[in-house]
Structures are given as C-alpha cells and as structure tokens.
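Appendix C. Worked example: Bacterial archaeo-eukaryotic release factor family 6 domain-containing protein
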Amino acid sequence: MAIKTTVSELAKLPDMNAPVITLNLNLNKLAYDANEQLRVKNILKEIQKEIGPSIDSFVNEVNDLIRQELPYDGITMISDRSGSNVYYLIRTSVDEADYHTDNSIDFLLLLSASPNADYTLLELNRDNSKLYQLQNKRVSPLAVENYPLTVQDALGTELRGGELNFSGRGGQTQYHGHNETSQEKQIDQERYYHVLEDLLKDDPSLREHDFILMGLPQNINLFKKLNKALKLADISIDQSVQSLAPDKIAELVNKKIEDYNNTHSNEAITKVFRDKLFTDLNTIQNMLNSDQVRHLFVASRDEINGHDPESYAKINVMIKQALAQDADVSVVKEQPDMPLVSAVSH
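Step 2, the predicted output written as structure tokens:
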C-alpha cells in the first residue's frame, strides 16, 4: 500500500535501490480528461518496459490511488525498482502527468514542487469568529465541537456589553445594568478570546497546529497580547475577511505565505546570517557529517544546472542529509549573487 509522506520523512528512509521512479499525476485532470487518462496509461506502460516485471506492483499502487479519488490537485509517487516501497506526496499543481528515473530521489525537485505547509486559520472579529483550514493551498471551513461562533455563544448570561445580565444568589436576582459601554464590550471581547484560546489549545487535533490570524489589526493585536498557549504563525491577514468566500481567503493567505517565505529566505541570507554563512562545499559537507548545520540554503534547480550541473548530485545528497537531521532547508530564488549552497551552523 502506498504511504503518504513528506520530503523530510523521505530523507530519513534508507536509500532506495536505483533506479528510483518519480511519477507526477494531475488528479484533477484524471477525473474528467480522457486524454490525461490515456497519457497516464501510456506512461505506466513505458515504466514497465523500462524497468521490467518487477515494477508491476508499483503500477498497481498507482491505479489504486487513482481509483480512490484523493482530494488533492496532484500527487508525486516515488518507488524503487522493486515496487515494494511506494510513497506519495501531495502536490498543489501538476501540469500533466510525467515521470523520470534517477539514481536517487531528487530532493531539490521535491522541495521546489512541495506545497505550502498546512495551517489553521482563525478569523477574529469583535463579537464573532470563524475557523478555517488551509490544506494544499485550499481553504475550507473547519468544524470544531462546541466552538462558540459568537461572543453570546461563549459568555451567555455573563455577557456585559449592551445586555441585561443577571445572577442569582440566595433567592435574590441581581441586575448588572442595561447600558452598552465601550469598556464593557472590550471586557467581553477579551473574555471571548480567552474562551477561544482555551478551547483550541485543549483540542488534540489542533493544539500542535500553527494558527494564522485574520481580522482588523486591533483584533489581531489583542488576541496576540492575550494568547499564552497557541502557536501563532509569523504572518497574519490584517484586514476583515467577513465578506470573503473561502477561495478569496485562500488567495490572500497563499500570497502572504509565498511573500513571507521568499522574503524570509532572502533576508536570512543578506541580513540575518550575512556574516555567519559557510559557502565552501567541502566545509558544508563536513558540517553535515558532524550534524552541525542549522539551516541550509540552496539555489534553484535551474541556477544549479545553469552554473554547475556537475555539482547537482552532490548538492542533492547534502539536502537529504540536512533534512534527515531536521535542519531547515530553503530553496532560494532571485539571489543570483549568492553561492549555490550555503549553510549556518548551530
């Protein structure tokens, strides 16, 4: 059975027996496009002809996954020549089906094609909120049991701003007033955000997620100030998204993530780590052998192939080693003055 995995998890597996087959599938097209279905059928025949009968089990796994109608735009399937070890990774876009065989897994290619990380999105308004999930660059509403969509749902009779609140004690009812005040509404908002945090941090399916906050800056800043337990992403959507459909929210969030990742990688090299970078390949390899690399920066495939194609295989091994050691690996684009590989030590 094919195993869903990530690039980092692949790097920790034993080396596959060459050749390694990498097959890219556009699942969207396969669902309706007869030409794409024929293309995949012919590709599988080509793989069988190139590798031989030992790959038949891989072909069966491919067909099984296609029949499952997985909820992804595309996938990349990877197997060795025996077909007994089959893995697949989620892809956000595959133009059309293709495959290639290599002596080992092409980790730089996989990193370049991998989707954004998944996030939980928390829309924050003054008296209501919503949860969404970002998976494979798509946004959809997220249902969580007992989630209070409004401040009224969260506080009930304890709501202060603009409500007639009461409490009973010893058979007597005490009224707290009718008047709506800005201060009372502020208190209600803070208490509402505390309820949200407590609920989300105790949910086993969400407590380890990174949250992207969405809303007016004052709402985001208040939640950040109050938050003690949730893992908040470094980016946020600093505008109201109440009137936006999920696909429009996805456009905003994905653009923000892409911009952040590019800026973060480029600034890390040009500013943060400018005087701490090691750029000699032998030195970097020795650092990896000693598990001393904290962050590895690698140029794009096109840049490496354009400037020093003979180093591609060596750089690919470095990427695998770094990923297996849980080091951060960033593919750096639009930095032509930078070396093809650079590293920062622990």
